[in-house]
Design brief:
211 residues; mainly beta; Immunoglobulin-like; 4-stranded mixed beta sheet; 4-stranded antiparallel beta sheet; 14 strands
């Protein structure tokens, strides 16, 4: 018995019991301003108070409400850990949508919903129009494409972009920065989704191929 208490005391700086809760850092809709032709994804970023593990996630679209949840095992070591999860929502009809996201903390590797944090956000899906298609065609000239990560983005005289955001096919943001005509990025081989933004709004997008 004495040995048990001595061991518990020695491990106490590294163990944590009853810490609450998973912290929801962000719930991001991709693309940020979706249209009726976009495949909508929701990327969640959640931090647990201890080093644990991601257990599961699910979602359901009920009219204009998107209900999503994820469960995380809290773990024991007292070092925070951040998890990224991508939910593939799909193509949505035009309208306003509410995202109700709940992050559950489990005391075991089976989700038993011991503690909960919630987040509510909203976004709008707009009808795709010929005008928008024209805009995208005008500003989405990227060459060479495929490239090794060094490429040029051409904008028309009428268009402006302040930032560039690039997602992997899973929805993970792999680059976000100030717009530059000449881009030189270290990306792994594969297919990506490039967004051009102005004042926080998506003004165009294009597939980007890295070889």
């Amino acid at each position: 018995m004495k040995l048990f208490f001595m061991l518990a005391l020695a491990l106490s700086p590294f163990l944590s019991f009853g810490q609450c809760c998973p912290d929801i850092n962000s719930v991001e809709v991709i693309p940020s301003s979706p249209t009726t032709t976009d495949n909508v994804k929701i990327v969640t970023t959640v931090t647990t108070p201890n080093q644990g593990m991601f257990l599961q996630s699910s979602h359901a679209v009920n009219g204009s409400n998107i209900n999503a949840e994820a469960c995380y095992y809290n773990g024991l070591l007292t070092a925070t850990q951040t998890f990224f999860d991508t939910l593939d929502i799909g193509i949505l009809s035009a309208g306003n949508y509410t995202v109700d996201f709940a992050a559950y903390q489990a005391s075991d590797t089976i989700c038993n919903y011991t503690d909960t944090m919630t987040s509510v956000s909203s976004f709008t899906v707009t009808e795709q129009t010929n005008a928008l298609t024209t805009i995208i065609e005008k500003i989405s000239l990227i060459y060479p494409n495929p490239s090794s990560g060094k490429f040029t983005i051409e904008l028309s005289d009428q268009m402006n972009a302040s930032h560039v955001r690039i997602h992997s096919i899973s929805g993970k943001v792999v680059h976000f920065g100030i717009f530059k005509k000449e881009m030189n990025l270290a990306l792994e081989t594969g297919s990506y989704f490039l967004e051009l933004l102005e004042n926080g709004l998506t003004v165009g997008h294009h597939q980007l191929l890295i070889e």
